[in-house]
Amino acid sequence: MDRFEWSDGNTIPGESFVLKQSGVAIYDGQDKTSFENGSLILTTHKLVWKDNKDKSYVLALPLSLVVYIEEQPSGFARSAKIVVHLSPAPSNKPSGPATYSAYSYIRLSFRESGEREFHQQFTEQLHSKKWEQSIPDAGPTLGQGARHRAGIMGIERSLKQRQKDTDQNISVAFQDLSKLIDKEVGGIMTLTDVYCRVNRARGMELLSPEDLLNACEMLEYLNLPVRLRTFDSGVMVLQLKSHSEEEVIDKTMTLVEEKKSVTAEELSQIAGVSVILAKERLLLTEKVGGLCRDETVEGLRFYPNMFLNRPD
Amino acid sequence: MHREMEDFSWPWQYQFPPFFTIQPNSDTRKKQLEAWCALVLSYLKQKKSHSVDVTEIQNSPLFNNKEINRKLPPDGVYAVFEELQKKGHLEWKDQKTRKQCLIMWRTPEEWGKMIYDWITSKSMTNTVCTLYELSNGDDSEGQEFHGLEKWLLLRALQTLEQQGKAEIINFDGNEGVKFF
C-alpha cells in the first residue's frame, strides 16, 4: 500500500479515462485494508480508487509502477481478483496511505464482477504505456530497468517472509525453474514441461497456457536468466541464458561422428535428453551445415555432412 | 550390355546413404546436386548413350544402389535433371510429360570445339567432307567424336556455323560440311 498516493482524481494533459468498475476492494498483499468499498478507475496513466462513502478518499497508483498483473479467478465465497505486482515506491513519491508495506503486490477484489474486462483493459494500458509519451513532471525518475529489477527483489523479500503463502507469483516459480533447468542437461526445457512443473508447484489456481506464455514473454523484461525460444519446427523451450548454441552444435557433431550416424531416439539416449530436444539439436546442427540427413521408410537418420566437410 | 559398366568407378557419394535424400540445407543441396550431375554425365558417357527414359534410368544402378538399399526418389531425379537442363546438358524430347530426354554429357559447343581443333590440327580447314566421313571415317578413328550420333554432330557443327568457323552444305546429295 505504500505505492499509492492521495489524489484528487483529476487527469493530467494527455491522460484519458478508460474504464470504471464499482464494488472493488484493495488488499495489501494478503492483508485486508480499510479500502473495502469503492470504485476502481483505470486511465491511460494511473489506477484510481474512490471510496463510496467518503468521496474525498481518493487513491492513485501510477501505472509506471506496475511490473506485472495476474488474474485470480473467483472461487467458493471468493471474488475474482487481479494481483498487481509493483516495483518499490520511488523516494520522491507524494504522500499516501502508507509509508511501508510488507508486500510488493496488491490485490484488487471485484465484488460486483467486472474483473475480466478490467483485466483486459488494464493489460492493454500496460502495453500502450501512454504515460511515457507525456512530458515527465514530478514523476519517478528511476530508470525503467532499475525499477523493475528492484521490483523482483522486493517480491523475493516479501515471499521469503511468506514461505507458506500459496499465492506464489510467477517470478518465484521461474527462480525455481532456473534451478530445474540447470539440472536438466543442456540447460533447456520444453514449454510443455515448464507448464507441468509450474502448475504442479502451484497446486491451486493453475496457470493457463496463455498465462504461461504471457509470463514467458516477460522474462527478458524481468531480467531473469531464462529465455523463451521458438524453434523453426514450432517447439518452444525455456533456455538458460548461459546456454551456448555453439557448444551444443559441436557436441552433437562429435557424437554423430563417433556413432557414424544417429536417429533422434539414439541421440536422446546418448545425450540424456528427451527425444524432442534431441531432434531439435540434430535439426539445428543440420541447419548450420554440420550434419546431413538420410530419410527412408525406416526413419530419419543424421550423418556428418560429408558434402561440405570433405574434399571431393 | 553391362560390360562397359564393369570398370566404371563410382564416386564416394554413391556409397553414402544421405546422397539419396535431397538435402534441405541449401548449401549442402548445392554440393549434392553438383555431385549427382557429374555422376549422371560420367555414367552416360561410359555407356556412350544420350537417350534417356526417365522410368528406366530411375530403376537403373545409376539412381538405385542395391548394395546400400538406397534409391533416389522421383522428385530427386527430376531435381537433378533440372540442374542438368540449366547447365545445357539436358533437353526434354517431350517438354510436357517429361518422360524422355536427351542428355549431352558433352554440350554441342564442346563437341564443336573438339572437332574444329582436330580439323585445324590436321590442316583440314578450307576443305569439305561429308558428315559420315567426319564421324565415321578412318581419319577420325580414335577421336572421341568418332561414332558421334548424327543429330548431335549436326548440333555441334551448327555451333561452329554460328561462330563462322563452318558451313553445313549439301553436295552430290550428301550432307557435308565446309570448314573455314
Automatic annotation (TrEMBL), chain A:
Source species, please?
A: Tegillarca granosa (Malaysian cockle)
Q: Which family does it belong to?
A: Belongs to the VPS36 family.
| Positions of the GLUE N-terminal domain | 1-138
Q: Which InterPro entries does this UniProt record tie to the protein? A: GLUE_dom (IPR021648), PH-like_dom_sf (IPR011993), Snf8/Vps36 (IPR040608), Vps36 (IPR037855), WH-like_DNA-bd_sf (IPR036388), WH_DNA-bd_sf (IPR036390)
Keyword Membrane appears in the UniProt entry: no
Q: Where in the cell is it found?
A: Cytoplasm; Endosome
Assembly: Component of the endosomal sorting complex required for transport II (ESCRT-II).
Q: Name one Pfam family in it.
A: EAP30
Query: What UniProt keywords are attached to this protein's entry?
Result: Cytoplasm, Endosome, Protein transport, Transport
**Where does it mainly reside?**
cytoplasm
Any idea what job this protein has? Component of the ESCRT-II complex (endosomal sorting complex required for transport II), which is required for multivesicular body (MVB) formation and sorting of endosomal cargo proteins into MVBs.
Query: What name does this protein carry?
Result: Vacuolar protein-sorting-associated protein 36
TrEMBL record, chain B:
Cytoplasm as a keyword?
Answer: no
Classification of source organism? Eukaryota, Metazoa, Spiralia, Lophotrochozoa, Mollusca
Q: Which domain of life is it from?
A: Eukaryota
Task: Keywords in alphabetical order, please.
Answer: Protein transport, Transport
Protein family: Belongs to the VPS25 family.
What Gene3D superfamilies does the entry give?
Winged helix' DNA-binding domain. Chain C. Domain 1, Winged helix-like DNA-binding domain superfamily/Winged helix DNA-binding domain
Name of the featured protein: Vacuolar protein-sorting-associated protein 25
Q: Does the keyword Transport apply?
A: yes
Report the source organism. Tegillarca granosa (Malaysian cockle)
User: Secretion signal: which residues?
Assistant: none
